[in-house]
Design goal:
0% strand; flat; mainly alpha; 112 residues; single chain
Length: 112
């Protein structure tokens, strides 16, 4: 039975790698079309933010406890401090992204 599982797992990995390669080729072809590039960047940004927030928000609200633990979760002693630090961290991240977006050309010139 382990051999069947291994063969099935190998087939899934091969299929996944083929899809990744096809996605790369389609992305390169569509990325070279000038009209579509802004739409592709918008969709990519939206998907990235969705995945990041779906993963991050439950972690922020869990109070740093493991979600699958059977033990009762204690109340956070420093709830407001954690909240302020989390909001400041997200604000700092948004600020850094905004600065990069605003000074993109100057940063590109500085690097090259």
């Amino acid at each position: 039975m382990i051999a069947l599982y291994s063969q099935k797992f190998t087939k899934i990995l091969h299929f996944s790698s083929i899809l990744a390669f096809m996605g790369m080729v389609i992305g390169i072809l569509l990325g070279s079309v000038e009209i579509l590039s802004s739409w592709i960047f918008s969709a990519t940004t939206g998907i990235f933010l969705y995945v990041a927030l779906v993963d991050m928000v439950p972690e922020l609200s869990s109070g740093h406890s493991h979600p699958y633990s059977e033990e009762p979760q204690p109340q956070a002693d420093h709830f407001y401090l954690e909240l302020v630090l989390q909001v400041l961290g997200m604000g700092l991240g948004v600020g850094v992204m905004l600065l990069i977006a605003l000074y993109e050309h100057e940063l590109k010139d500085a690097i090259s």
